[in-house]
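Explain the record.
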Amino acid sequence: MQPSASEPVGTGDLGVIIERATGKVAIINSSHMTILGEVAGLGDLSHASVVFSRDERYAFVFGRDGALSKVNILTRKLEARIMQAGNSIGGAMSQDGRYVAAQNYTPGGVKVFDARTLELVADIPAEYAPGKLSRVVGLVDAPNVGQGQRFVFSLFDADEVWIADVPGAGQPPRIQKITQVGHQPYDALISPEGRHYIAGLFGEDGLALIDLWSPQPKARKILSGYGRGQEPLPVYKMPHLRGWAVAGRHAYLPAIGRHEVLVVDTDTWQEIARIPVLGQPVFVMARPDGRQVWVNFAVPDYSRVQVIDTASRQVIRTLEPGKAVLHMEFSPRADQVWISSRDANLVSVIDPSSFDTLQTLSIDAPSGIFLTHRAGRIGF
């Protein structure tokens, strides 16, 4: 049974789905697979992302128009909204939950806000040369080292990665700049334990790996030339590396412009296998128990999803949940995967074991799906 409107709901049951065409988010109950309500007035959500407060009560929504919105997902109300930049593509929550940070294209940089009041705590322009600001991508939270709350991010136009320690209001952030990381870092992730920051490189084959536990972190190239000897293919949609799959000691990564998923040993950071898939991967996401990896694709294959069995490293199922699959999200214990199909105005909830469709929800142009268990994970 669906809970009544007056019945208390635990936040661990909840999540939000971006309605990209209407500036709304839908609040969902994952246990009951239902829509509880909508929150409007969030602006341009054509490229939006969400992080949660540590108590899972608030969703912070980063809009393409530079807005940062604070949504109370229990009362289903927009509590605050600020225009903090001209073009924003995501953000991160600090380890202690006090700060929420936004990564910005225009003007390039990172802004850090008090998560309670949305007052500005720190402004970090991504100025890499006099008068030149870089677009910022790959912003993640990282475990602090006693010097303040730590964020790591990439400068697409500067070929750099910066580590920012934010002590608090009234104190300037401390910035450590790692240069010459590789050409055009376009997105990044942090490993589940918070040790390794890995930036994908759009301007060359390979990735940049940074050990954040090192007293003097430096970038080293991994998977250099994974497309060597092959004709470059057009890239129809940039892979989203925040959804990279780490299952056991292996990482499953999208090869830019290729119809392959790369398998990497996370002890050595060497490629150990490639798995052919039907198109250019966008999201490569691991089931929480690590048994499967689910992959969606750029055009013209963006209506399909393939499932890889990590034991055999074989594609075991191809699904067609609806036109223009944009995002996938697993429940924390792997009993559900939620899939948005933008052009079908549909969200499907699928059992990852039987591949049965458990529920379908009609939602206007759905894109990102974010469940509240992300609040307890580094880099989410």
